[in-house]
Write a structure and sequence with these properties.
Family: Belongs to the LTO1 family.
Order of helices and strands: HHH
Number of strands: 0
Number of domains: 1
Pfam families: Yae1_N
Number of helices: 3
InterPro entries: Essential_protein_Yae1_N, LTO1_adapter
Strand content: under 5%
Shape: rod-shaped
Domain Essential protein Yae1 N-terminal: 22-60
Helix content: over 70%
Radius of gyration: 28 Å
Protein name: ORAV1 protein
């Protein structure tokens, strides 16, 4: 027969093993949950970024087409600014989330968009639709 003291001693020596196994299981579960959360966050953030930049491109292309009909110097400057915005958007690295200047380039695009809006006398907050479903950046 095993004495109660001996069984407690044996249990005491098992604690590090259980602790190690529990740690490994927790680490694996946490890593899996973290990857899933990271994917969801990345997909959401990527969708918002794509929507924002796509909106800028649609805006720029539309205004470019509208201003093509007028050939005065004022519109020529606006068209050059729109061409610059369109070029910046076309060079934007959508497929590379590891691009180290992604935020910097996005800020430049936003700045150029605001400049173009100012030249066109348009508010740059882009509220589209009803207030509840408005698209803002």
């Amino acid at each position: 027969s095993v004495s109660p003291t001996r069984s407690l001693t044996e249990l005491w020596f098992c604690i590090p093993r259980f602790h190690g196994e529990g740690y490994q299981e927790g680490l694996a579960e946490g890593s899996h949950a973290g990857m899933a959360e990271g994917r969801r966050h990345g997909a959401l953030h990527g969708a918002r970024l794509g929507s924002e930049v796509g909106c800028y491109l649609g805006f720029a292309l539309t205004w470019h087409c509208l201003l093509q009909k007028c050939t005065d110097e004022k519109n020529s400057k606006k068209i050059r600014a729109l061409d610059s915005l369109i070029g910046m958007i076309q060079k934007f690295p959508y497929e590379d989330p590891t691009y180290d200047k992604l935020q910097e380039d996005l800020e430049k695009i936003r700045g150029k968009f605001k400049q173009v809006c100012s030249m066109l006398n348009i508010q740059s907050d882009l509220r589209i639709g009803t207030e509840r479903s408005s698209l803002t950046f």
